[in-house]
Amino acid sequence: MEKTNTDQTFEPKIIAFVCNWCTYLGADLAGTNRLEYPANIRIIRLPCTGRIDFNLVIKAFEVGADAVLVSGCHPGDCHYNAGNYHARRRWILFRELLEVLGIETERIHFSWISAAEGAKFQKFVTEIVDKTRALGPYRGYQSITHESEER
Amino acid sequence: MAKIGVFTCWCGENIARHIDVERVSKAIESLPGVHCSMNYKYMCSEPGQSLIIDQIKSLGLTGVVVASCSPHMHLKTFRAAAQLAGVNPYMVEMANIREQCSWVHADKEEATAKAIELIRISVEKLRHNRPLQPISVPITKKALVIGGGVAGIQAALDIAAAGHEVILVEKEPSVGGKMAGLSETFPTLDCSQCILTPRMVEVNQHPKIRLMTYSEVEKVEGYIGNFSVTIRQKARYVDVNKCTGCGTCWNGCPNKRIPNSFDFNLGNRTAIYIPFPQAVPARPVIDSSRCIHFKNGKCGICEKNCAAGAINFNDEDKLITEEVGAVVVATGYQLYSIGKEQSNPNLSGYGEYGYGKYKDVIDSLQFERLISASGPTGGEPKRPSDGRVPQKIVFIQCVGSRDNAKGVSYCSKICCMYTAKHTMLYKHKVHDGEAHVFYMDIRSGGKKYDEFVRRAIEQDGALYHRGRVSKITEEEIDGVRKLVVRGADTLTGKPVTVEADMVVLACAMAPTDGATALAQKLSVGYDEYGFLSESHPKLRPVETNSAGVFLCGACQGPKDIPESVAQASAAAAKVLVMFSQDHLTREPEIAHVDESLCAACCACVQACPYEAISIEEIVDRKGNHVKNTSRVNPGLCMGCGTCVAVCPSKSIDLEGFTEEEVYAEIESLLS
Amino acid sequence: MGTTEFGYYPGCALHGSSNDYEQSVRACLDRLDVRLTELEDWICCGATAAHSINQKLATALPARNLAIAEKAGCGSLLAPCPMCSMELLKAKQAITSDPAVRDEMSEIVELPVIGSTDVVNLIQVFQAIGLDAIKSKVTDSLDRFRPACYYGCLLTRPPKTLRFDDCEHPSSMETFLAELGAEPVDWNFKTECCGAGMTLCDPDTVTDLAHKIIANARKHGANVIVTACPMCQMNLDMRQADVEKKFEETFDMPILYLSDLVGLALGISEEELGINRHYVKLQI
Question: How far apart are the two ends of chain A, measured CA to CA in Å?
Answer without folding.
Answer: 32
